[in-house]
What we know:
The complex is a heterodimer. Chain A is mainly β. Chain A is built from no helices and twelve strands. In chain B, about 0% of the residues lie in helices and about 50% in strands. Chain B contains no helices and twelve strands. Classes of the chains: A mainly beta, B mainly beta. At the A-B interface, β5, β6, β10 and β11 of A face β5, β6, β10 and β11 of B.
Amino acid sequence: DVKVTQSSRYLVKRTGEKVFLECVQDMDHENMFWYRQDPGLGLRLIYFSYDVKMKEKGDIPEGYSVSREKKERFSLILESASTNQTSMYLCASSPFGEGTEAFFGQGTRLTVV
Amino acid sequence: AQSVAQPEDQVNVAEGNPLTVKCTYSVSGNPYLFWYVQYPNRGLQFLLKYITGDNLVKGSYGFEAEFNKSQTSFHLKKPSALVSDSALYFCAWGVNRDDKIIFGKGTRLHILP
């Protein structure tokens, strides 16, 4: 089974802190994604990576950055956490190819106080 | 902007009745279309997808969806609902120029015993 593991289920951070959310996949997938999920807004794509060191902005990249130094690991970085970044963050991976589906981690619920 | 729309925030269906969760798309070219489900306190799970070919797609847990190009729709259906189908359902799309997957806002399905 494909496994996408997010390092934390719950995080509480203070405003202004630098926050790292880590994601690891074990299926050698080329593509990795970070989404945030908010009630009534669905899933919104923050960043997408299609290869090591390659990244593309999604729909809401402001306030976030990403790092992909190894194929299996994709990190989301909140440079200076703010209360409006309180959300559920979902990581996913997929193999390269037409119409391949994404496999999701369990999510990290981040609260910024 | 290209997108998928899920016009209903919530759908209520009596157990044993057929269910439909609606999705319409506004995507140029030939989109890939997906359905995902999120059970309480769990990550997203892939249900089914349309890439090309047969317009009727069958997926997990007895779900199916029909791609209708003239109506730009990809509604999710099941002939007989179970209480355990109660969950949050997301429609999503992708295109073949990259592997990004973009999600709709979700529809909460309640199956009433």
